[in-house]
Amino acid sequence: MYKIHNDIFCLSIKERGAELEEVSIHGINILWKGKELWNAQSPLLFPVIGSLKDGYYLYNQQKYVLNPHGFIKEQVFDIVEKTSNSITLKSSYTEETYKVYPFIFEFYITYTLLFNKIKISIEIKNLEQKTIYFSLGLHPGLDYAGLKELIGEDLYLQMNVQQEVQAILFDPVYMKNTYPTKLSPSVKLSEFSKELIQKRTICYQGVQEIELGAETKKIKIKHSMPFTAFWQSRPENPKFICVEPWYGLPDECITTHQLEKKKEIISLEARGTFKTELEISYLEGAESYENYSL
Question: Of all helices (H) and strands (E), which one includes residue 247?
Fold first, then answer.
């Protein structure tokens, strides 16, 4: 277990999967910690997002089987560099990963605390002399009890977009189609949660800034990935909500299984490097903390 901290945040990070296990703000943890509904807190998703149709994909006429969300969440990460408020971790291909994903790669993730912001930077290096293909995502589960203790009972969800976005329809696990939609400026989190119980997953293309808050306090998630998905478990009294930035999508209902043709797959050229960032901010009172951007 690794820890970094500053005057506002304390992060606990697992060696396995480089997964955030705890995000405490002024001593209050806002990450899901339960076991009975979902035995995770904030897994990384690579090299696929969601489920593969029939559990497999094809590459160079070979069949490969992968579990939902891929394998990076099970990999052990090593420290590259660490300070009191920043840590860089690394994982890479192994003989076992090569059996299910025939590419040579390195995966780096850096967690940095910048006053009232958590900056998460991901870098993927292609060590091959050929193009590699992958999807990438994050899956943080935000605990309702922790959010209410930190922010207040009357929580709202706001997705900051100025134009129409594309909604992704799943049936129920695989991608069925997309359709344009306009989002309400703000919705009560309890109402949005009820919609999630019915749909299981809600996903939008073009939403890259999300706020969870009340009148004077809020958590803001800002990223550069094309998709944002929302998911929770399905009891009548949900305990958490996952806000998931994605580069890529689960398989389509009708698919050829070809990895290179997978919807929204990333192709990274030989010896290339892919980078992306996400930030989680805690705002209290006037938005005077907005002093850092992607």
Answer: strand 240-247
